[in-house]
Amino acid sequence: MVSVQRVLAGCVMAAAVGVGLPAQAAGNDDGQVKLGVLGDMSGVYSSGFSGDGAVAAVEMAAEDFGGEVLGKPIEVVSADHQNKADVASATARAWIDRDGVDVIMDLTNSAVGLAVQNLASEKGIITINTGSATSELTGASCTEYGIHYGYDTHALPVGTATAIVKNGGKKWFFITADYAFGHSLEKNTRAVVEELGGSVVGSVNAPLNTNDFSSYLLQAQSSGAQVIGLANAGQDTTNAVKQANEFGIVSGGQQLAGMLVLLSDIQSLGLDTTAGLQFTTGWYWDRDEDSREWTERYLDNGGTTPTSPHAALYSATMAYLKAVEAAGTDESDAVREAMGNKPIDDFFAQGGTIRDDGLLEHDMYLLKAKQPSESEGRWDLATIERTIPGDRAYASLAESGCPRVAE
Prior knowledge:
57% of the residues are buried. The chain has 14 helices and 16 strands. By secondary structure, the protein is of the alpha/beta class. Helix 12 (308-327) packs across helix 13 (332-341). 38% of the residues lie in helices and 19% in strands.
């Protein structure tokens, strides 16, 4: 049976500054395998990206693996980073120095993901970002132990922006989350739009966890843009879409483009609001029989929403544990090497590979939200319009900008 410990970030931080705490060597084969889920447990990304659903995915994978690896029990700990890089870093430091955590996963929020990846790598600990999106994780900020698993800001617009521009939506205006993720997503989407002959007529930055998008939407409405690109995610996206509909923006002829939309967002907004919306994802629960079978078990085992980040966490946990088994140790260097040498071929990523820059390269999917009359169940919300091969969705290894690749 898997031992599961819920840890509040504040408690971990308080303990981390105490004196006389015994430090455990990072990344060593110390007789335990401890998985840390460091996510947004209560904020803007807690529903489809992180939260209880993320913890449930990791716990389910650990239990499916048998509850132990190399004869050692698997323990899952979790904490709320509160969407603050300093809180996340303090928690990660305490986990590594005091608690012997072997791998840190989830890390939803790109500022958090970048900070923890850098800190953990300095201490020789593997991180697996499943919720962060910025391509910087495997670009200029890549590290020896950092893995980016599921999607990034390069792959997302390759599907969505390409489809919209080719369908005539060539003049864009961006409403952008004002931190690393939003800026990276806008930059990558701009590149796709302009490469296809479109243009960007303006943009505006909005703080994370914005409740009132009225001023930003009015700027977009008056810009003359055909497409309003929402370079945000989670509750920020759903708030922006709801308010755009209240202002009559879509009925007035402008199109909304959600650059990072999850199935949980479609359900929250309802098909009456989202019907016809196209979005790109790394996985869809109704893609094939294996995905449907996993989704049913996940929801039966405490899972909350069958979204791509939650599925990615399960897949990443299994990949990590299989690498520990193959390496014969949970020492970070050996496990990271084993993860890079072993293809990821499961319900989530068929034929995927973890590259030298840490990116999981795998197929992406362009989805289209169904009409209300087409839906046959709670999660029957979209159809797969197109499969985007991994080598087209992601920047090539040579183009990644990762300095380690050039070494």
